[in-house]
């Protein structure tokens, strides 16, 4: 057989096998890697959608927590996994910022993954220890700027949502603060509750319970409009800080080379999960909402990632904060 005929036969075989592979997918358990510790806000989101996606797919999705390096360790693990649809990644905005934040990233962010879809965009809230002096957000900004060398701002580590929000806040007020990185959201919140640090900017999925319980003090949200869960809490813009707007979006990815039919099947299951009333209620209780069906698609997530990499690159470069 000639070389051209051999290539043609192989191509035809691949075309025929891909739909057959997708038709039987999934035939076994799927692992969803969350690149952060169990119990954190991203883990909470992952477990909500994994349970409902499992029902639609007819196979269990188990969540595996692979924390470290601001999420890049878990992402790198998935990038190297077999592209068969049985290992996926649920990551937040750190997927975009890591491309600039880390000098030695083990994967090429835009070219190491296939896309499944957006899951949710979680709002952020500027919070402080419960006895922090300022009465409102304008006073908060003035006080922080006037005491920059004394104010301690906690975050959950380089690349974490709280770290990114903190960088954007410091850029917005043109003031460098004393930052205190922790190994995770839990210890950072514990020290904020205990008064060992002064302020933090973190996701509603991690702050709602404490705000409602009065154990921390909330000053403003980072959203365009007020949140239904906190109707009396002003947005940063209406409280006098335009441009300070950020949400922590989450998306699901698969290793590069995963068949399109498989990522589309996963996307369909994601859409089913996000349309579930129980998922919507659970997210509402955490101050967020499921992504609409048109955003829970490969194309929407790809566009979001590209846009966010471009958005955060100058912020990170201006801050001069990098990780090896």
UniProtKB/TrEMBL annotation:
CDD domains per the UniProt record, alphabetical: PBP2_BugD_Asp
Signal peptide (UniProt feature, chain positions): 1-22
InterPro entries linked to this entry: BUG, Bug_dom1
Superkingdom to which the source organism belongs: Bacteria
Entry keyword annotation includes Phosphoprotein: no
Keyword set includes Signal: yes
Keywords: Receptor, Signal
Family of the protein in this entry: Belongs to the UPF0065 (bug) family.
Protein's name according to its UniProt entry: Tripartite-type tricarboxylate transporter receptor subunit TctC
Organism of derivation: Paracoccus sulfuroxidans
Taxonomic placement: Bacteria, Pseudomonadati, Pseudomonadota, Alphaproteobacteria, Rhodobacterales
